[in-house]
Specification:
The complex is a heterodimer of chains A (236) and B (303). Chain A is mainly alpha-helical and 236 residues long. Helices cover 77% and strands 0% of the residues of chain A. The longest helix of chain A is centred in the middle third of the chain and has 31 residues, at 90-120. The radius of gyration of chain B is 24 Å and the shape is elongated. In chain B, helix 2 (91-101) crosses helix 3. The model of chain B has no long low-confidence stretch (mean pLDDT 91). Chain B folds into two domains: 4-214, Rossmann fold, CATH 3.40.50; 221-302, Alpha-Beta Plaits (2-Layer Sandwich). The chains are: A mainly alpha (236), B alpha/beta (303).
Protein backbone atom coordinates (compact mmCIF):
# COMPACT_ATOMS: atom_id res chain seq x y z
CA UNK A 1 0.00 0.00 0.00
CA UNK A 2 2.86 2.37 0.81
CA UNK A 3 4.40 1.82 -2.63
CA UNK A 4 1.09 2.66 -4.30
CA UNK A 5 0.84 5.81 -2.16
CA UNK A 6 4.45 6.70 -3.05
CA UNK A 7 3.90 6.32 -6.80
CA UNK A 8 0.61 8.21 -6.51
CA UNK A 9 2.19 11.12 -4.66
CA UNK A 10 5.16 11.23 -7.06
CA UNK A 11 2.74 11.19 -9.98
CA UNK A 12 0.61 13.93 -8.49
CA UNK A 13 3.47 16.30 -7.89
CA UNK A 14 5.32 15.26 -11.01
CA UNK A 15 2.58 16.59 -13.29
CA UNK A 16 2.09 20.23 -14.23
CA UNK A 17 -1.45 19.93 -12.95
CA UNK A 18 -0.04 20.17 -9.40
CA UNK A 19 0.81 23.82 -10.08
CA UNK A 20 -2.93 24.47 -10.30
CA UNK A 21 -3.07 23.85 -6.56
CA UNK A 22 -1.10 26.99 -5.74
CA UNK A 23 -3.08 30.03 -6.95
CA UNK A 24 -6.40 29.34 -5.18
CA UNK A 25 -5.09 29.14 -1.59
CA UNK A 26 -2.84 32.14 -2.27
CA UNK A 27 -5.81 34.11 -3.58
CA UNK A 28 -7.84 33.17 -0.52
CA UNK A 29 -5.20 34.26 1.99
CA UNK A 30 -4.30 37.32 -0.13
CA UNK A 31 -7.88 38.57 -0.18
CA UNK A 32 -8.23 38.14 3.59
CA UNK A 33 -4.94 39.94 4.18
CA UNK A 34 -5.94 42.85 1.93
CA UNK A 35 -9.30 43.22 3.74
CA UNK A 36 -7.54 43.07 7.08
CA UNK A 37 -4.90 45.60 5.97
CA UNK A 38 -7.56 48.06 4.85
CA UNK A 39 -9.51 47.53 8.08
CA UNK A 40 -12.61 46.31 6.31
CA UNK A 41 -15.04 44.90 8.87
CA UNK A 42 -14.97 41.06 8.93
CA UNK A 43 -18.76 41.08 8.82
CA UNK A 44 -18.46 42.57 5.30
CA UNK A 45 -15.78 40.27 3.85
CA UNK A 46 -15.99 37.17 6.07
CA UNK A 47 -18.83 35.38 4.34
CA UNK A 48 -17.88 36.05 0.70
CA UNK A 49 -14.24 35.10 1.28
CA UNK A 50 -14.69 32.12 3.67
CA UNK A 51 -17.83 30.63 2.15
CA UNK A 52 -17.98 32.12 -1.36
CA UNK A 53 -14.33 31.47 -2.17
CA UNK A 54 -12.93 29.14 0.51
CA UNK A 55 -15.63 26.52 0.96
CA UNK A 56 -17.45 26.84 -2.37
CA UNK A 57 -14.38 27.01 -4.61
CA UNK A 58 -10.96 26.36 -3.01
CA UNK A 59 -11.86 23.17 -1.12
CA UNK A 60 -13.93 21.39 -3.82
CA UNK A 61 -11.76 22.47 -6.75
CA UNK A 62 -8.60 21.38 -4.93
CA UNK A 63 -10.27 18.05 -4.15
CA UNK A 64 -11.29 17.75 -7.81
CA UNK A 65 -7.79 18.43 -9.16
CA UNK A 66 -6.18 16.05 -6.67
CA UNK A 67 -8.91 13.38 -6.58
CA UNK A 68 -9.02 12.98 -10.36
CA UNK A 69 -5.23 13.42 -10.55
CA UNK A 70 -4.44 10.42 -8.36
CA UNK A 71 -6.59 7.93 -10.28
CA UNK A 72 -8.28 9.52 -13.32
CA UNK A 73 -4.94 10.48 -14.93
CA UNK A 74 -3.56 6.97 -14.47
CA UNK A 75 -6.71 5.44 -15.94
CA UNK A 76 -6.54 7.93 -18.79
CA UNK A 77 -2.91 7.32 -19.78
CA UNK A 78 -2.99 3.58 -19.02
CA UNK A 79 -0.27 3.56 -16.33
CA UNK A 80 -2.81 2.15 -13.85
CA UNK A 81 -2.14 -1.23 -15.46
CA UNK A 82 1.26 -1.47 -13.76
CA UNK A 83 -0.43 -1.18 -10.38
CA UNK A 84 -3.35 -3.44 -11.24
CA UNK A 85 -1.13 -6.32 -12.45
CA UNK A 86 0.06 -6.89 -8.90
CA UNK A 87 -1.44 -9.31 -6.38
CA UNK A 88 -2.74 -6.41 -4.28
CA UNK A 89 -6.31 -6.35 -2.97
CA UNK A 90 -8.13 -3.59 -4.85
CA UNK A 91 -9.13 -2.22 -1.43
CA UNK A 92 -5.47 -1.40 -0.68
CA UNK A 93 -5.03 0.45 -3.96
CA UNK A 94 -8.13 2.60 -3.45
CA UNK A 95 -7.30 3.29 0.21
CA UNK A 96 -3.74 4.37 -0.70
CA UNK A 97 -5.07 6.72 -3.34
CA UNK A 98 -7.79 8.04 -1.03
CA UNK A 99 -5.19 8.67 1.66
CA UNK A 100 -2.97 10.68 -0.69
CA UNK A 101 -5.89 12.58 -2.25
CA UNK A 102 -7.60 13.54 0.99
CA UNK A 103 -4.30 14.30 2.72
CA UNK A 104 -3.07 16.64 -0.01
CA UNK A 105 -6.52 18.26 -0.34
CA UNK A 106 -6.85 18.75 3.40
CA UNK A 107 -3.40 20.32 3.66
CA UNK A 108 -3.86 22.55 0.63
CA UNK A 109 -7.30 23.79 1.67
CA UNK A 110 -7.21 23.66 5.48
CA UNK A 111 -4.10 25.79 6.02
CA UNK A 112 -5.37 28.85 4.10
CA UNK A 113 -8.86 28.33 5.58
CA UNK A 114 -7.36 28.36 9.07
CA UNK A 115 -5.52 31.61 8.32
CA UNK A 116 -8.62 33.22 6.83
CA UNK A 117 -10.84 31.98 9.71
CA UNK A 118 -8.42 33.33 12.29
CA UNK A 119 -8.29 36.70 10.52
CA UNK A 120 -12.06 36.90 10.08
CA UNK A 121 -13.17 35.69 13.52
CA UNK A 122 -10.92 33.84 15.90
CA UNK A 123 -8.41 31.02 16.13
CA UNK A 124 -11.26 28.79 17.31
CA UNK A 125 -13.18 29.58 14.16
CA UNK A 126 -10.04 28.78 12.18
CA UNK A 127 -9.86 25.35 13.83
CA UNK A 128 -13.55 24.75 13.13
CA UNK A 129 -12.88 25.45 9.45
CA UNK A 130 -9.92 23.04 9.53
CA UNK A 131 -12.11 20.23 10.92
CA UNK A 132 -14.84 20.98 8.40
CA UNK A 133 -12.25 21.05 5.59
CA UNK A 134 -10.78 17.68 6.63
CA UNK A 135 -14.27 16.10 6.64
CA UNK A 136 -14.96 17.75 3.28
CA UNK A 137 -11.60 16.61 1.86
CA UNK A 138 -12.41 12.98 2.75
CA UNK A 139 -15.94 13.07 1.30
CA UNK A 140 -14.96 14.98 -1.87
CA UNK A 141 -11.91 12.76 -2.48
CA UNK A 142 -13.99 9.58 -2.21
CA UNK A 143 -16.52 11.06 -4.63
CA UNK A 144 -13.94 12.19 -7.19
CA UNK A 145 -12.00 8.91 -6.97
CA UNK A 146 -15.22 7.10 -7.73
CA UNK A 147 -16.00 9.45 -10.63
CA UNK A 148 -12.55 8.62 -12.09
CA UNK A 149 -13.73 5.01 -12.40
CA UNK A 150 -17.29 5.71 -13.48
CA UNK A 151 -16.72 8.15 -16.32
CA UNK A 152 -14.05 8.98 -18.84
CA UNK A 153 -14.56 12.68 -18.06
CA UNK A 154 -14.35 12.85 -14.27
CA UNK A 155 -13.18 16.50 -14.22
CA UNK A 156 -16.18 17.63 -16.24
CA UNK A 157 -18.68 15.67 -14.15
CA UNK A 158 -16.98 16.84 -10.94
CA UNK A 159 -17.12 20.45 -12.06
CA UNK A 160 -20.80 20.05 -12.86
CA UNK A 161 -21.37 18.73 -9.33
CA UNK A 162 -19.47 21.65 -7.75
CA UNK A 163 -20.83 24.44 -9.93
CA UNK A 164 -24.32 23.29 -10.85
CA UNK A 165 -25.42 21.04 -7.97
CA UNK A 166 -23.73 22.75 -5.06
CA UNK A 167 -23.29 26.26 -6.46
CA UNK A 168 -26.51 26.82 -8.35
CA UNK A 169 -29.16 24.36 -7.20
CA UNK A 170 -27.90 24.43 -3.60
CA UNK A 171 -28.64 28.12 -3.47
CA UNK A 172 -32.20 27.98 -4.77
CA UNK A 173 -33.55 24.51 -4.05
CA UNK A 174 -33.22 23.65 -0.38
CA UNK A 175 -33.69 19.89 -0.92
CA UNK A 176 -30.41 19.59 -2.84
CA UNK A 177 -28.46 20.64 0.25
CA UNK A 178 -28.87 17.18 1.75
CA UNK A 179 -26.57 15.91 -1.01
CA UNK A 180 -24.10 18.80 -0.91
CA UNK A 181 -20.70 18.22 0.70
CA UNK A 182 -20.20 21.99 0.89
CA UNK A 183 -23.25 22.23 3.16
CA UNK A 184 -21.88 19.45 5.41
CA UNK A 185 -18.61 21.38 5.79
CA UNK A 186 -20.48 24.58 6.66
CA UNK A 187 -22.75 22.66 9.04
CA UNK A 188 -19.85 20.98 10.88
CA UNK A 189 -17.73 24.16 11.20
CA UNK A 190 -20.73 26.24 12.25
CA UNK A 191 -21.64 23.83 15.05
CA UNK A 192 -18.06 23.70 16.37
CA UNK A 193 -17.58 27.48 16.43
CA UNK A 194 -20.83 29.36 15.78
CA UNK A 195 -20.26 32.72 14.11
CA UNK A 196 -21.94 35.26 11.93
CA UNK A 197 -19.82 34.16 8.97
CA UNK A 198 -21.33 30.71 8.51
CA UNK A 199 -24.97 29.88 8.20
CA UNK A 200 -25.30 26.12 8.63
CA UNK A 201 -28.46 24.86 6.97
CA UNK A 202 -28.03 21.14 7.68
CA UNK A 203 -27.91 19.79 11.23
CA UNK A 204 -24.69 18.36 12.65
CA UNK A 205 -25.92 14.71 12.70
CA UNK A 206 -27.06 14.96 9.08
CA UNK A 207 -23.75 16.57 8.09
CA UNK A 208 -21.64 13.93 9.85
CA UNK A 209 -23.70 10.93 8.73
CA UNK A 210 -23.94 12.12 5.14
CA UNK A 211 -20.20 12.87 4.97
CA UNK A 212 -19.56 9.34 6.25
CA UNK A 213 -21.95 7.92 3.65
CA UNK A 214 -20.12 9.78 0.85
CA UNK A 215 -16.77 8.59 2.21
CA UNK A 216 -17.61 4.97 2.94
CA UNK A 217 -20.12 4.44 0.14
CA UNK A 218 -17.89 6.11 -2.44
CA UNK A 219 -14.86 4.12 -1.32
CA UNK A 220 -16.66 0.76 -1.32
CA UNK A 221 -18.15 1.40 -4.74
CA UNK A 222 -14.76 2.50 -6.07
CA UNK A 223 -13.12 -0.69 -4.75
CA UNK A 224 -15.79 -2.74 -6.49
CA UNK A 225 -15.39 -0.82 -9.75
CA UNK A 226 -11.61 -1.16 -9.70
CA UNK A 227 -12.03 -4.92 -9.26
CA UNK A 228 -13.86 -4.99 -12.60
CA UNK A 229 -11.43 -2.69 -14.38
CA UNK A 230 -11.49 -3.60 -18.08
CA UNK A 231 -9.20 -2.83 -20.94
CA UNK A 232 -10.93 -2.52 -24.27
CA UNK A 233 -9.76 -4.87 -27.00
CA UNK A 234 -8.76 -3.75 -30.47
CA UNK A 235 -12.17 -4.57 -31.88
CA UNK A 236 -14.13 -2.50 -29.39
CA UNK B 1 4.70 -25.13 -14.46
CA UNK B 2 1.48 -23.29 -15.15
CA UNK B 3 -1.28 -23.89 -17.63
CA UNK B 4 -3.55 -21.25 -19.09
CA UNK B 5 -6.91 -22.52 -20.25
CA UNK B 6 -9.74 -21.01 -22.26
CA UNK B 7 -12.95 -23.02 -22.35
CA UNK B 8 -15.54 -22.08 -24.96
CA UNK B 9 -14.79 -18.42 -24.48
CA UNK B 10 -16.74 -15.76 -26.32
CA UNK B 11 -16.67 -12.03 -25.90
CA UNK B 12 -18.97 -9.57 -27.57
CA UNK B 13 -19.36 -5.81 -27.48
CA UNK B 14 -23.01 -5.02 -28.10
CA UNK B 15 -23.74 -6.65 -31.45
CA UNK B 16 -20.11 -7.16 -32.39
CA UNK B 17 -18.63 -10.57 -31.63
CA UNK B 18 -14.92 -10.05 -30.98
CA UNK B 19 -14.09 -13.58 -29.85
CA UNK B 20 -16.22 -16.53 -30.83
CA UNK B 21 -16.21 -19.78 -28.86
CA UNK B 22 -12.47 -20.24 -28.46
CA UNK B 23 -10.99 -23.12 -26.48
CA UNK B 24 -7.25 -23.43 -26.04
CA UNK B 25 -4.70 -24.66 -23.54
CA UNK B 26 -1.29 -23.06 -23.23
CA UNK B 27 1.42 -25.34 -21.93
CA UNK B 28 4.90 -24.34 -20.74
CA UNK B 29 7.03 -23.09 -23.64
CA UNK B 30 6.68 -20.26 -26.11
CA UNK B 31 3.47 -19.93 -28.10
CA UNK B 32 2.72 -17.31 -30.72
CA UNK B 33 -0.74 -15.76 -30.94
CA UNK B 34 -1.25 -14.91 -34.55
CA UNK B 35 -3.90 -13.14 -36.52
CA UNK B 36 -4.56 -10.17 -38.74
CA UNK B 37 -5.29 -6.79 -37.13
CA UNK B 38 -8.72 -6.77 -35.56
CA UNK B 39 -8.92 -10.56 -35.33
CA UNK B 40 -9.38 -10.54 -31.56
CA UNK B 41 -5.81 -11.25 -30.33
CA UNK B 42 -5.76 -8.40 -27.83
CA UNK B 43 -9.23 -9.30 -26.57
CA UNK B 44 -8.02 -12.86 -25.91
CA UNK B 45 -4.89 -11.58 -24.15
CA UNK B 46 -6.89 -9.18 -22.02
CA UNK B 47 -9.24 -11.97 -20.95
CA UNK B 48 -6.25 -14.17 -20.07
CA UNK B 49 -4.76 -11.33 -18.06
CA UNK B 50 -7.97 -10.69 -16.11
CA UNK B 51 -8.72 -7.32 -17.68
CA UNK B 52 -11.83 -8.34 -19.52
CA UNK B 53 -14.67 -10.60 -18.46
CA UNK B 54 -15.59 -13.28 -20.99
CA UNK B 55 -19.21 -12.87 -22.10
CA UNK B 56 -19.41 -16.66 -22.11
CA UNK B 57 -17.05 -19.46 -21.10
CA UNK B 58 -14.20 -19.57 -18.61
CA UNK B 59 -10.59 -18.37 -18.59
CA UNK B 60 -8.30 -19.81 -15.94
CA UNK B 61 -4.67 -20.12 -14.91
CA UNK B 62 -3.96 -23.38 -13.09
CA UNK B 63 -7.68 -23.72 -12.53
CA UNK B 64 -8.14 -20.28 -10.94
CA UNK B 65 -10.34 -17.82 -12.83
CA UNK B 66 -8.50 -14.73 -14.07
CA UNK B 67 -11.42 -12.26 -13.86
CA UNK B 68 -11.73 -10.35 -10.58
CA UNK B 69 -8.92 -12.39 -9.05
CA UNK B 70 -5.83 -10.24 -8.32
CA UNK B 71 -4.02 -13.19 -6.71
CA UNK B 72 -3.22 -14.52 -10.22
CA UNK B 73 -0.73 -11.67 -10.68
CA UNK B 74 1.67 -13.51 -8.40
CA UNK B 75 2.10 -16.09 -11.20
CA UNK B 76 1.29 -13.88 -14.18
CA UNK B 77 3.28 -11.14 -15.87
CA UNK B 78 1.75 -8.89 -18.52
CA UNK B 79 3.36 -6.63 -21.08
CA UNK B 80 0.40 -4.78 -22.56
CA UNK B 81 0.42 -3.17 -25.98
CA UNK B 82 -0.20 0.31 -24.58
CA UNK B 83 3.17 1.78 -23.76
CA UNK B 84 2.27 4.02 -20.84
CA UNK B 85 4.79 3.86 -18.01
CA UNK B 86 5.19 6.13 -15.01
CA UNK B 87 7.61 8.44 -16.84
CA UNK B 88 8.52 10.47 -13.77
CA UNK B 89 10.29 7.45 -12.23
CA UNK B 90 13.69 6.11 -13.23
CA UNK B 91 13.79 2.60 -14.67
CA UNK B 92 15.20 1.26 -11.41
CA UNK B 93 12.64 3.05 -9.24
CA UNK B 94 9.88 1.70 -11.47
CA UNK B 95 11.06 -1.92 -11.40
CA UNK B 96 11.81 -1.77 -7.65
CA UNK B 97 8.29 -0.38 -7.06
CA UNK B 98 6.86 -3.29 -9.06
CA UNK B 99 8.95 -5.73 -6.99
CA UNK B 100 7.67 -4.15 -3.77
CA UNK B 101 4.08 -4.36 -4.96
CA UNK B 102 4.75 -8.05 -5.67
CA UNK B 103 5.80 -8.27 -2.01
CA UNK B 104 9.18 -9.83 -2.89
CA UNK B 105 11.62 -10.33 -0.05
CA UNK B 106 14.50 -8.58 -1.82
CA UNK B 107 12.97 -5.99 -4.18
CA UNK B 108 16.28 -4.28 -5.01
CA UNK B 109 17.98 -7.57 -5.88
CA UNK B 110 15.05 -8.79 -7.96
CA UNK B 111 14.91 -5.46 -9.82
CA UNK B 112 18.64 -5.64 -10.52
CA UNK B 113 18.31 -9.14 -11.99
CA UNK B 114 15.31 -8.14 -14.12
CA UNK B 115 17.07 -5.04 -15.47
CA UNK B 116 20.16 -7.12 -16.28
CA UNK B 117 18.02 -9.63 -18.16
CA UNK B 118 16.74 -6.92 -20.50
CA UNK B 119 20.13 -5.14 -20.68
CA UNK B 120 18.89 -1.93 -19.12
CA UNK B 121 21.41 -1.54 -16.32
CA UNK B 122 23.28 1.19 -18.19
CA UNK B 123 20.27 3.49 -18.28
CA UNK B 124 18.54 2.36 -15.09
CA UNK B 125 18.97 5.67 -13.30
CA UNK B 126 17.48 7.78 -16.06
CA UNK B 127 13.87 8.91 -15.98
CA UNK B 128 11.69 6.70 -18.15
CA UNK B 129 10.25 9.66 -20.06
CA UNK B 130 13.71 10.26 -21.57
CA UNK B 131 13.77 6.72 -23.03
CA UNK B 132 13.32 5.59 -26.63
CA UNK B 133 10.40 3.32 -27.50
CA UNK B 134 12.58 0.21 -27.36
CA UNK B 135 14.07 1.13 -23.98
CA UNK B 136 10.60 1.71 -22.55
CA UNK B 137 9.52 -1.63 -23.89
CA UNK B 138 12.46 -3.39 -22.26
CA UNK B 139 11.80 -1.61 -18.98
CA UNK B 140 8.20 -2.81 -19.10
CA UNK B 141 9.39 -6.35 -19.77
CA UNK B 142 11.74 -6.07 -16.76
CA UNK B 143 8.81 -4.92 -14.62
CA UNK B 144 6.69 -7.84 -15.82
CA UNK B 145 9.52 -10.32 -15.16
CA UNK B 146 10.66 -9.01 -11.79
CA UNK B 147 8.73 -11.65 -9.83
CA UNK B 148 9.74 -14.42 -12.27
CA UNK B 149 6.16 -15.25 -13.21
CA UNK B 150 5.27 -18.74 -14.42
CA UNK B 151 3.05 -17.21 -17.10
CA UNK B 152 4.11 -14.27 -19.23
CA UNK B 153 1.72 -12.62 -21.69
CA UNK B 154 3.11 -10.13 -24.17
CA UNK B 155 1.07 -8.06 -26.60
CA UNK B 156 3.15 -7.16 -29.66
CA UNK B 157 6.38 -7.20 -27.63
CA UNK B 158 8.76 -6.38 -30.47
CA UNK B 159 7.20 -3.08 -31.43
CA UNK B 160 9.76 -0.31 -31.45
CA UNK B 161 12.78 -2.56 -30.94
CA UNK B 162 15.78 -2.48 -33.24
CA UNK B 163 16.96 -5.78 -34.78
CA UNK B 164 19.60 -6.41 -32.11
CA UNK B 165 17.11 -5.79 -29.30
CA UNK B 166 14.60 -8.04 -31.04
CA UNK B 167 17.17 -10.80 -31.24
CA UNK B 168 18.00 -10.39 -27.59
CA UNK B 169 14.34 -10.37 -26.56
CA UNK B 170 13.74 -13.51 -28.64
CA UNK B 171 16.64 -15.26 -26.91
CA UNK B 172 15.27 -14.18 -23.55
CA UNK B 173 11.79 -15.52 -24.29
CA UNK B 174 13.28 -18.73 -25.66
CA UNK B 175 15.32 -19.33 -22.54
CA UNK B 176 12.33 -18.58 -20.30
CA UNK B 177 10.26 -21.03 -22.33
CA UNK B 178 12.98 -23.66 -22.08
CA UNK B 179 13.02 -23.20 -18.31
CA UNK B 180 9.35 -24.16 -18.11
CA UNK B 181 7.64 -20.77 -18.20
CA UNK B 182 4.41 -20.50 -20.15
CA UNK B 183 4.84 -17.66 -22.61
CA UNK B 184 2.32 -16.28 -25.06
CA UNK B 185 3.09 -13.39 -27.30
CA UNK B 186 0.90 -11.86 -29.95
CA UNK B 187 2.23 -10.60 -33.21
CA UNK B 188 1.12 -9.86 -36.72
CA UNK B 189 4.69 -10.11 -38.04
CA UNK B 190 5.03 -13.72 -39.14
CA UNK B 191 8.81 -13.68 -39.26
CA UNK B 192 8.94 -12.97 -35.54
CA UNK B 193 6.64 -15.84 -34.68
CA UNK B 194 8.48 -18.18 -37.04
CA UNK B 195 11.82 -17.43 -35.40
CA UNK B 196 10.52 -17.63 -31.88
CA UNK B 197 8.08 -20.46 -31.78
CA UNK B 198 6.82 -23.43 -33.71
CA UNK B 199 3.64 -23.44 -31.64
CA UNK B 200 0.96 -21.06 -32.79
CA UNK B 201 -2.62 -20.21 -32.01
CA UNK B 202 -4.10 -18.57 -35.08
CA UNK B 203 -7.13 -16.36 -34.65
CA UNK B 204 -9.06 -15.20 -37.67
CA UNK B 205 -12.20 -13.06 -37.30
CA UNK B 206 -12.63 -13.94 -33.65
CA UNK B 207 -12.37 -17.70 -34.15
CA UNK B 208 -9.52 -20.06 -33.47
CA UNK B 209 -8.49 -21.06 -36.99
CA UNK B 210 -5.64 -23.39 -36.04
CA UNK B 211 -3.67 -24.47 -33.03
CA UNK B 212 -0.38 -26.32 -32.64
CA UNK B 213 2.93 -26.61 -34.49
CA UNK B 214 2.49 -24.74 -37.76
CA UNK B 215 4.48 -27.32 -39.74
CA UNK B 216 2.10 -30.03 -38.53
CA UNK B 217 -0.86 -27.77 -39.27
CA UNK B 218 0.47 -27.45 -42.83
CA UNK B 219 0.69 -31.20 -43.22
CA UNK B 220 -2.88 -31.60 -42.09
CA UNK B 221 -4.08 -29.35 -44.91
CA UNK B 222 -4.45 -32.29 -47.24
CA UNK B 223 -6.62 -30.40 -49.71
CA UNK B 224 -3.65 -28.22 -50.65
CA UNK B 225 -0.80 -29.78 -52.64
CA UNK B 226 2.55 -29.58 -50.87
CA UNK B 227 5.21 -27.78 -52.85
CA UNK B 228 8.80 -29.06 -52.85
CA UNK B 229 11.92 -27.69 -54.45
CA UNK B 230 14.03 -30.58 -55.78
CA UNK B 231 17.50 -30.59 -57.35
CA UNK B 232 19.12 -33.67 -58.75
CA UNK B 233 21.83 -34.94 -61.08
CA UNK B 234 19.23 -35.21 -63.91
CA UNK B 235 16.17 -33.05 -63.29
CA UNK B 236 14.41 -33.83 -66.59
CA UNK B 237 14.70 -37.61 -66.13
CA UNK B 238 13.50 -37.31 -62.55
CA UNK B 239 10.52 -35.17 -63.69
CA UNK B 240 9.45 -37.90 -66.13
CA UNK B 241 9.67 -40.54 -63.42
CA UNK B 242 7.85 -38.43 -60.84
CA UNK B 243 4.87 -37.62 -63.02
CA UNK B 244 4.07 -41.35 -63.05
CA UNK B 245 3.90 -41.37 -59.25
CA UNK B 246 0.38 -41.30 -57.82
CA UNK B 247 1.06 -38.81 -55.04
CA UNK B 248 2.53 -36.23 -57.45
CA UNK B 249 0.03 -33.81 -58.95
CA UNK B 250 2.39 -31.61 -60.96
CA UNK B 251 6.01 -31.00 -61.85
CA UNK B 252 7.60 -27.85 -63.24
CA UNK B 253 11.07 -27.75 -64.66
CA UNK B 254 12.94 -24.57 -63.91
CA UNK B 255 16.51 -23.43 -64.30
CA UNK B 256 17.15 -23.89 -60.59
CA UNK B 257 15.64 -27.36 -60.43
CA UNK B 258 12.18 -28.93 -60.16
CA UNK B 259 9.10 -27.62 -58.40
CA UNK B 260 7.02 -30.63 -57.43
CA UNK B 261 3.43 -30.49 -56.22
CA UNK B 262 2.45 -33.48 -54.12
CA UNK B 263 -1.05 -34.26 -52.98
CA UNK B 264 0.14 -36.49 -50.12
CA UNK B 265 3.11 -35.41 -48.04
CA UNK B 266 3.90 -38.83 -46.56
CA UNK B 267 3.57 -40.91 -49.74
CA UNK B 268 5.64 -38.45 -51.76
CA UNK B 269 8.52 -38.23 -49.30
CA UNK B 270 8.64 -42.03 -49.16
CA UNK B 271 8.35 -42.47 -52.93
CA UNK B 272 10.99 -39.93 -53.98
CA UNK B 273 14.10 -41.75 -52.73
CA UNK B 274 12.78 -45.01 -54.16
CA UNK B 275 12.22 -43.46 -57.59
CA UNK B 276 15.59 -41.72 -57.57
CA UNK B 277 17.33 -44.93 -56.64
CA UNK B 278 15.48 -46.88 -59.30
CA UNK B 279 16.40 -44.33 -62.02
CA UNK B 280 19.99 -43.99 -60.82
CA UNK B 281 19.54 -40.28 -60.12
CA UNK B 282 21.40 -38.54 -57.31
CA UNK B 283 19.23 -36.16 -55.25
CA UNK B 284 20.98 -32.95 -54.29
CA UNK B 285 18.25 -30.94 -52.62
CA UNK B 286 14.76 -31.53 -51.26
CA UNK B 287 13.04 -28.63 -49.55
CA UNK B 288 9.40 -28.20 -48.63
CA UNK B 289 8.91 -24.69 -50.01
CA UNK B 290 5.48 -23.84 -48.64
CA UNK B 291 5.97 -24.92 -45.05
CA UNK B 292 6.82 -21.41 -43.94
CA UNK B 293 4.50 -19.88 -41.43
CA UNK B 294 3.62 -17.27 -44.00
CA UNK B 295 2.18 -19.79 -46.44
CA UNK B 296 0.38 -21.67 -43.66
CA UNK B 297 -1.07 -18.40 -42.46
CA UNK B 298 -2.19 -17.29 -45.89
CA UNK B 299 -3.82 -20.69 -46.50
CA UNK B 300 -5.70 -20.33 -43.21
CA UNK B 301 -6.87 -16.83 -44.11
CA UNK B 302 -8.12 -18.01 -47.48
CA UNK B 303 -9.96 -20.97 -45.97
Amino acid sequence: MSTVAYITARGLFGRRRALLLLPLPLLLVGLALICKAYDVSPSDWGQPVVVGLGLAVVLPVTALIVGTGVLGSEVDDGTIIHILTKPLPRRDIILAKLLVASGVTALTAAIPLFVVGALAESVNFGFALVIGAVAGALAYSALFLLLSLLTRRPVLVGLAYILVWEGLLGRFISGTRVLSIEQYVIGIADKIAPSGVLDGKVSLPVAVVMSAIFLIGGTLYAINRLGSFSMAGETS
Amino acid sequence: MSVVELQNVSRWYGNVVAVNDISMTLQPGVTGLLGPNGAGKTTVLHMMAGFLAPSKGAVSIDGAPTWRNPSIYGTLGLVAEREAVHGFLTAREFVVACAKMQKLSDPAGAAKRALELVEMTGAQDRRIDTFSKGMRQRTRVAAALVHEPQVLLLDEPFNGMDPRQRMHMMELLHSLGDRGHTILFSSHILEEVEQLSGLVQVIVAGRLAASGDYRRIRRLMTNRPHVFAVQSSDDRKLAVALIGEKSVSGVEIEASGLTVRASDYGSFTRALPRIALGEGIRLRKLLPSDESLESVFSYLLEA
